[in-house]
Design brief:
The complex is a heterodimer of chains A (398) and B (182). With 398 residues, chain A is mainly alpha-helical. Helix content of chain A is 75%, strand content 0%. Classes of the chains: A mainly alpha (398), B alpha+beta (182).
Chain lengths: 398, 182
């Protein structure tokens, strides 16, 4: 019989995670100290960097919540092996809510619609019903409220299922996942509009939030894949993870790489074909003054290279190579977030401030430390999940 | 030597199995016993069968890649030639080779050519259409299209022995073992 103990972290696995957690925390604290220095020395750049770092790591938090719900709806062995890491990652939502607070105090620094000059801008004036400081702040409370309730329920029922073997928890988890994903799509659209698209309040694109969705899926899957492969060096993951599992995760990464490219290209081709003055600003800014090299780098290293690598079945079945691709994608995701946010500020030429690295590193260190701490607190597999045995047999012969 | 045997008297020996797991297991054992010239027949795609039988013929993949590259460069080249050389036309001040607008068609021609080469090379390399195959001589082989799984060890295999091979196949718990006439 399977007991919770069979999937508890072995002392070796726990030691690996604890070591990583301490290192992350140290890196995070050093990064945050640098951020504090940045806040004093150059507040404008601090807040820009902070927004980049926040959006980048938030992709992991909300992406994990969404993928949790996806795997409850679709089932599948891939979801079972990363379910506990996804839960641990979704439980960083409260941390993200706290880390968002500084942005609320810097609205005029970041957003052109929050500055006094906006009163003389006819286009922005027409949008003030939505883009005003009070409504913006209220919206943030609503988003985080919805997300925190989602994260709370998804985690509570899953962990309850471990304790007593009531099959109703699985049903409840499945039932909230459908409406939960609808809420996810709506809140994601709104929060992406608020945090990133409204940096340029004149411009609009209906596919923009979906681009962020593909990025969230990609960031999350890459981190989870790297995580389970790391865990597979030790028990209990060593006897759980098969080649078939990593193959499936690799296939999903490939899908999200293609989705990301498809959505980015859709936006480009529609704006290119229309060639309208109010739409092309986003690209004219990003195709000149050095920014075009960032765009070209994204095309090559966010799409072409990972796409070609992930096409290989051999690579997806080799844990080391797959980890390399996953870490590669996580790194290039940061460049993508940088490219979405920064050209709105430094329009004349490509510039990088040291805060653009310090903030993502600071936030990331703390995020990773909390994620690992969450991960160490519960068994690595949902022991009473109805499909657990089927998921474990994925790719094994009897 | 007075008599030269041009052909072995039979094509091979066919074993029938009830399910795909038994078939995969049988193939593994036959490999382990040293048999190389053999083939498996199944009504459904069986995962791992290609690995167990060491079927590493990836020519279809190579042809598909070449077809795709031809479609990619051919499509893009044709459109570029049309809009920049044969009939240059300034459309809203865009460059004559307006790359983003050419990508969807380039994508389509890539998929078209890759798909066609994949289908055609698969059919040709499989030797299809093939109206006759010796295994059809075993009446029960018709079940390979519905619910039975077959392993045929062919007589061209250097280790093949009419009686030993039959005995070996019987040891794998098949439903039936039958000789296959040419």
């Amino acid at each position: 019989m399977i007991t919770a103990n069979s999937y508890s972290l072995s002392t070796e696995a726990d030691a690996t995670l604890a070591r990583l957690q301490t290192r992350s925390l140290v890196v995070g604290i050093v990064g945050l100290v640098a951020c504090a220095a940045g806040l004093v020395l150059s507040p404008d750049h601090f807040f820009r960097g902070w927004l980049v770092g926040f959006v980048f790591w938030f992709c992991m938090t909300l992406g994990s919540t969404a993928l949790l719900m996806v795997q409850y709806l679709t089932g599948g062995a891939w979801g079972m092996v990363i379910r506990r890491p996804l839960e641990a990652s979704s439980r960083t939502m409260l941390l993200m809510a706290v880390l968002f607070i500084p942005i609320l105090f810097a609205l005029p620094t970041l957003f052109e619609w929050a500055r006094p000059e906006a009163a003389y801008d006819a286009v922005i004036q027409a949008k003030t019903l939505y883009l005003n400081k009070t409504f913006f702040t209220i919206r943030q409370f609503v988003y985080f409220g919805i997300w925190l309730v989602m994260v709370y329920l998804l985690n509570k029922w899953s962990l309850r299922e471990d304790a007593d073997r009531n099959i109703y928890y699985a049903k409840w988890l499945q039932r909230i996942s459908g409406p939960g994903l609808v809420l996810y799509a709506l809140t994601l659209t709104l929060c992406t509009t608020d945090w990133v698209m409204s940096l340029d309040a004149h411009w609009f694109s209906t596919v923009f939030a979906f681009m962020m969705l593909s990025g969230q899926g990609l960031s999350t899957l890459s981190l989870m894949t790297a995580m389970v492969i790391l865990l597979a060096h030790t028990e209990p993951m060593r006897s759980v993870l098969t080649k078939r599992h990593t193959h499936d995760l690799g296939k999903l990464m490939l899908t999200f790489v293609m989705l990301w490219a498809y959505l980015n290209f859709s936006q480009l081709v529609i704006i290119w074909a229309g060639n309208l003055p109010e739409e092309i600003t986003w690209y004219t800014r990003r195709m000149n003054n050095g920014w075009q090299w960032v765009g070209l780098a994204l095309l090559m290293f966010h799409f072409v290279v990972p796409f070609l690598l992930l096409l290989s079945q051999e690579l997806k079945k080799r844990p080391k190579l797959l980890t390399f691709v996953a870490l590669w994608i996580i790194a290039i995701r940061l460049v993508d977030v940088f490219w979405l946010i920064e050209p709105n500020f430094d329009q004349d030429q490509l510039r990088m401030h040291w805060m653009d690295l310090a903030a993502p590193i600071g936030i990331g260190g703390v995020w990773m430390a909390l994620f690992l701490w969450n991960l160490r607190r519960h068994p690595l597999m949902p022991v009473n999940a109805p499909d657990l045995q089927k998921a474990l047999n994925h790719g094994r012969h009897h | 030597m007075t008599s030269v045997e041009l052909k072995p008297p039979i094509y091979g020996i066919l074993a029938e199995f009830d399910n795909s797991d038994d078939l995969v297991e049988a193939c593994k054992q036959a490999r382990a016993a040293g048999y190389r010239k053999m083939d498996a027949y199944s009504p459904i795609p069986v995962e791992d069968l290609d690995e167990v039988l060491h079927l590493h013929d990836n020519r279809v993949a190579l042809f598909t890649l070449l077809g795709g590259l031809f479609g990619c460069f051919g499509g893009f080249g044709l459109m570029s030639w049309c809009s920049a050389i044969a009939y240059p036309l300034n459309i809203g001040g865009r460059p004559l080779i307006s790359v983003p607008m050419l990508i969807p068609i380039t994508f389509e021609t890539t998929i078209l050519c890759a798909g066609l080469t994949a289908a055609i090379s698969m059919i040709v390399l499989n030797g299809l259409p093939q109206p006759y195959h010796p295994v059809f001589n075993v009446p029960r082989f018709a079940a390979a299209s519905s619910n039975k799984f077959f392993l045929c060890i062919e007589s061209e295999d250097p280790k093949f022995h009419r009686h030993d091979t039959a005995r070996f196949l019987e040891s794998l718990n098949p439903d039936e073992v039958a000789e296959v006439a040419h």
